[in-house]
UniProtKB/TrEMBL annotation:
The keyword Transcription regulation does not apply. Belongs to the DEAD box helicase family. PANTHER family: ATP-DEPENDENT RNA HELICASE DBPA (PTHR47959:SF1), ATP-DEPENDENT RNA HELICASE RHLE-RELATED (PTHR47959). Residues 33-203 form the Helicase ATP-binding domain. Its EC number is 3.6.4.13. PROSITE patterns: HELICASE_ATP_BIND_1, HELICASE_CTER, Q_MOTIF. One of its GO terms (molecular function) is nucleic acid binding. GO terms for cellular component: cytosol. Residues 2-30 form the DEAD-box RNA helicase Q domain. Keywords: ATP-binding, Helicase, Hydrolase, Nucleotide-binding. This is DEAD-box ATP-dependent RNA helicase CshA. The gene is cshA_1.
Length: 376
């Protein structure tokens, strides 16, 4: 299959895809859409950037019943940013129709959400915490679903949403179709999936090594003491168009962003400790290139599609090799070239070995040496 028409999609879907310049499915879409449209439960391994959002949205839209008064599809996702992004994609597909999509996440006015939930809502895109709040208030009814999607399932479990996800699943009807998309199908994801899914078909998107081939990866070996100085030296020498700088914790993000601001870098921060309105404002500024550097925790590494990111800087080495792939996957997108630079302290060497084993590549490295002027 090389065209969306081959899936026998409704005409409005084909036209709305075409208006976005999309006419050819990605491998994960080609693989999963026909199976999902047949009604099977699917457990799919797909990394960020493979087109998985359309892989579940298109069958959802295809199967919507315009006469139903109930919420027909529920998409549960770990972060507010990803919920916003999925909602945006869904609204593009719903253009020129009366299909209604409602994002439900914390940081929004709950009364406004209540008002909208009182009307007809076809698709709900939600984060676990706020959705559970509505379930407890009995302000949302998810007992008549056609489709339930768990997106970024491994990330939801990783950040501690297992209990919430299970409570949500128990609030849904048993005859629904369940789709689980995850960057990794590890034992935790499978245990959750098989507890609530009906004989799911396991599917894996083709390897993303091709995407990594467009990214120049480098390591800078430096002690923790001089890491900030080494980062600033890199920023000054490369002056990237748009860059994301990843730190391990919110505190590290705050500290680095403050130091960069003092040095007059055009930067801002993004992490889970900020209000939703603040996070949205930062993302808007970054997407519009009004800031050059986004200093972030891994909340920004999953699912966010930001065009034009030329450089990724791993100020802190991630704690898992998969996270490294997600981070650097923010650049080198859609065939563009990208650069990923990782600052490695002696304590990080074991993780670097794991990363190199995972990607099947020995990453070129250099030592950061302080200039004579700086040593004085």
């Amino acid at each position: 299959m090389n065209k969306f028409q081959d899936f026998n999609l409704k005409q409005f879907l084909v036209e709305n895809l075409k208006s976005q310049g999309i006419d050819k499915p990605t491998p994960i879409q080609d693989m999963t859409i026909p199976i999902i449209m047949e009604g099977s439960d699917v457990l799919a391994e797909a990394q960020t950037g493979t087109g998985k959002t359309l892989a579940f949205l298109l069958p959802i839209f295809q199967n919507l019943d315009s006469e139903s008064p109930h919420v027909q599809a529920l998409i549960v996702t770990p972060t507010r940013e990803l919920a916003i992004q999925i909602t945006s994609e869904a609204k593009k597909l719903a253009a020129n129709t009366d299909i209604t999509i409602l994002p439900v996440f914390g940081g929004q006015d709950i009364n406004a959400q209540l008002k909208k939930l009182n009307g007809k809502v076809d698709i709900v895109v939600a984060t676990p915490g706020r959705l559970l709040d509505h379930i407890r208030r009995e302000t949302v009814d998810i007992s008549h679903l056609s489709t339930l999607v768990l997106d970024e399932a491994d990330q939801m479990l990783y950040i501690g949403f297992r209990n919430e996800v299970e409570m949500i699943l128990k609030s849904t009807n048993k005859d629904k179709q369940t789709l689980c998309f995850s960057a990794t199908l590890d034992s935790k994801v499978k245990k959750l999936a098989y507890k609530f899914m009906k004989d799911p078909l396991e599917m894996r998107a083709p390897s993303q090594n091709v995407t990594l081939d467009t990214i120049e990866q480098r390591i800078v070996r430096v002690s923790d003491r001089w890491k900030q100085e080494a980062l600033f030296a890199e920023l000054d020498s490369t002056n990237p168009f748009l860059a994301i700088i990843f730190c391990r914790t919110k505190r590290r993000v705050d500290k680095l962003e403050e130091a960069m601001s003092q040095k007059k870098y055009l930067c801002n921060k993004l992490h889970g400790g900020m209000t939703q309105s603040a996070r949205q404002k930062v993302m808007k500024s970054f997407r519009e290139a009004r800031i050059q550097y986004l200093v972030a925790t891994d909340v920004a590494a999953r699912g966010l599609d930001i065009s034009g990111v030329s450089h990724i800087y791993n100020f802190d080495v991630p704690e898992e090799s998969e996270t490294y792939i997600h981070r650097i996957g923010r650049t080198g997108r859609m065939g563009d070239d990208g650069v990923a630079i990782t600052f490695v302290a002696p304590k990080d060497e074991a993780m670097v070995s794991e990363i190199e084993k995972k990607i099947g590549l020995k990453i070129p490295s250099s030592e950061y040496s302080r200039s004579t002027k700086d040593k004085k």
